Automatic annotation (TrEMBL):
Biased composition (Pro residues): 54-63
Lineage: Eukaryota, Viridiplantae, Streptophyta, Embryophyta, Tracheophyta
Record's keyword terms, sorted: Metal-binding, Zinc, Zinc-finger
Annotated protein name in UniProt: CCHC-type domain-containing protein
Residue ranges of domain CCHC-type in the record: 95-110
Species of origin: Spinacia oleracea (Spinach)
Domain of life: Eukaryota
Alphabetical list of InterPro entries matching this protein: Znf_CCHC, Znf_CCHC_sf
Region feature (Disordered): 47-95
Amino acid sequence: MGIPCLHALACIQTRRLNYEDFVHPAYHVQTYAKSYAPPFRGMPGQTQWEVTPYPGPLPPPYRKIPGRPSTHKRKKAAGEDEDKQPVKRAKRQNRCSRCGALGHYKPKCPMPPPPGATGTQLIV
């Protein structure tokens, strides 16, 4: 690639050589400065483009990717959630399956269970 790997740099250092001699000239600062020295004009804006009879580009077709959906959510922009209000709903009350009253479950029901419904039967 033009830049020595870490192992080569270690060998260059142990021999006390100049590592800049082993880097390709394309990666030198002088070469970079020469390539951007001549001025260049930027592209004209979209309003200055030629009008063509061809239709504009379309977005790529939607493809459903196979597999389980990703669990990573996108990062929201600053102030994106400020206008949202949490939904406030009334809490759903418990309904007892034994007496049908609201506010408790069957194990906490104040009414006594019917005889023989406890799961243990007396053998007489």
